[in-house]
Write a structure and sequence with these properties.
The protein has 464 residues and is an alpha/beta fold. The chain folds into three domains: 119 residues, Rossmann fold; 122 residues, Response regulator (Rossmann fold, 3-Layer(aba) Sandwich), CATH 3.40.50; 170 residues, Hypothetical protein af1432, CATH 1.10.3210.10. It has 19 helices and ten strands. Helix 3 links the parallel strand 3 and strand 4. Helix 16 packs across helix 17. The radius of gyration is 31 Å and the shape is elongated. Fe (ii) ion (FE2) binds next to loops.
């Protein structure tokens, strides 16, 4: 981020000086004004990231100044912190009523101001570009709330009833759904249930707008899993505060969950890598093969625009693709000479053995299919099933190309490593015959990028 720009408005030079010292660790460029009029001139001419204002000043008060900032479409997005020596609940309430993003008593400024600034700026960043789906049958509500939410930094998609909302939700996953309770057609209660039954939407927070008299229904809906309800009429500033709070809680939970999943995934990958290394230790020629194939396959997949999720599946499938060799007898696996037909048939079984090994693991079906299809060929000449073209799982097609490249450019018990150029020539000649054309094209891009460098798995195909 560029240097943030703050404005401090206070009629006391001593207070301005003290605050500048408190703010020094933030590293912001600080503009100062001694009253609201001077503050307004700066606000009108300078883009600001934050405004801190005193309340009691000659001329307009800080509360009136804050109210002006929040009503002015050009500045309504700019967060305002009120800094005041008035510390009663009523004073604090009045600050929030005029749209302040935070209220810091002067007596606590030394300890509270910097954390509060960080919190406010985080919240602003959080609202930026977050998509709210606003569902309300009243055109006026959609228009006024939509404008208010956009001014607060949100993106807004609107629907006039439940049916229209469900249509929007077929193609869009918003960050939060804000809906009316009573609508013609599907009512809010039914709509909530329908939304929550859709897997892709299950974690999207829902906020319901209701009247005071709907309290009993609302309590039931909270039990059913909506995040919050707000009673109409609600001021846009209060609504924005509620939505930001929910999104920041959601964001926090998501971060915790992401960390937990990443730790779990690393543990799984660590165990799989150890297992594969133990298997490959039987044969010095194929030692490191699976990790190397995985590294190449992930490099290729980057050129195919794989998502992080698909990348994770490919990572596991790549590491496990030859796991079935655990069932191949040593005298066949390690045989230096040419294999007999029967021995070759025995080696081929590794693709079905891997499927048997992985079958009991829940959620591994696509990994299993990908691992067991790495010897299938585009023209149907491969094994074990003789699948053709797009019948072969995409990940299996990528691993096939990576597997051939790694095998050709590594020493084998029966021959020395071939050059990278020879392997690339063979793969290029096999484009659309033995190998998926799209995968070969992506492979060639990868090879051009890292020609001759043999990557290891876990680095997204980037060399060590
Ligand atoms: Fe294999």
């Amino acid at each position: 981020m560029d240097t943030p720009k703050f404005l401090i408005v206070d009629d006391s030079n001593a207070a301005l000086y003290a605050l500048e010292r408190i703010l020094a660790p933030v590293g912001a460029k600080i503009h100062v004004a001694h009253d609201a009029a001077e503050g307004q001139r700066i606000v009108e001419n300078t883009p600001l990231d934050l405004i801190i204002t005193d309340v009691d000043m000659p001329g307009r008060s800080g509360l009136e100044f804050c109210d002006w900032i929040k009503r002015n479409p050009g500045t309504a997005d700019t967060p305002v912190i009120i800094l005041s020596s008035r510390e009663t609940d009523r004073d604090i309430d009045r600050g929030f009523e005029v749209g302040a993003d935070a209220y810091v008593p002067k007596s606590a400024a030394g300890s509270d101001m910097v954390p509060r600034i960080e919190q406010v700026l985080d919240r602003v960043a959080l609202a930026r570009d977050r998509l709210i789906l606003l569902i309300d049958d009243s055109k006026a509500v959609r228009s006024i709330m939509g404008d208010g939410l956009r001014r607060a930094g949100f993106k807004v998609e609107a629907a006039q009833n439940g049916e229209e909302a469900l249509e929007v939700l077929d193609s869009v996953v918003p960050d939060l759904i804000l809906m009316d309770l009573i609508m013609p057609g599907i009512n809010g209660l039914e709509l909530c249930r329908e939304i929550q039954s859709r897997e892709a939407l299950a974690s999207v927070p829902i906020v319901v707008m209701s009247r005071v008299s709907d309290k009993v229904v609302m309590r039931r809906m909270i039990q059913d899993g909506i995040s919050a309800y707000v009673t109409k009429p609600i001021g846009i500033n209060n609504l924005v505060q509620v939505l930001k709070r929910i999104l920041s809680e959601q964001f926090h939970l998501m971060r915790v969950e992401q960390k937990r999943l990443a730790a779990e995934r690393n543990l799984t990958l660590g165990s799989i890598t150890s297992l594969v290394r133990a298997l490959e230790a039987r044969d010095k020629y194929t030692c490191g093969h699976s990790e190397s194939v995985t590294g190449i396959a992930m490099g290729v997949a980057r050129h195919l625009g794989f998502s992080n999720n698909d990348m994770a599946r490919l990572h596991i499938a790549g590491l496990l693709h030859d796991l079935g060799k655990i069932g191949v007898r040593d005298n066949v696996l390690l045989k230096p000479g040419k294999l007999t037909d029967a021995e070759y048939e025995h080696i081929k079984e590794h693709t079905t053995v891997v499927a048997d090994i992985l079958a009991p693991l829940p959620g591994m079906k696509d990994v299993l299919l990908a691992a067991s299809s790495h010897h299938e060929r585009w023209d149907g000449s491969g094994y074990p099933k003789g699948l053709k073209g797009e019948e072969i799982p995409f990940i299996g097609r990528i691993i096939a190309v990576a597997d051939v490249y790694d095998a050709m450019t590594s020493d084998r018990v029966y021959r020395k490593a071939l050059s990278g150029e020879t392997a690339v020539k063979t793969i290029t000649e096999g484009r659309g015959v033995l190998f998926c054309p799209e995968c070969v094209d992506a492979f060639l891009k990868w090879h051009k990028e890292f020609s001759g460098v043999r990557p290891k798995a876990g680095l997204n195909g980037r060399p060590e």
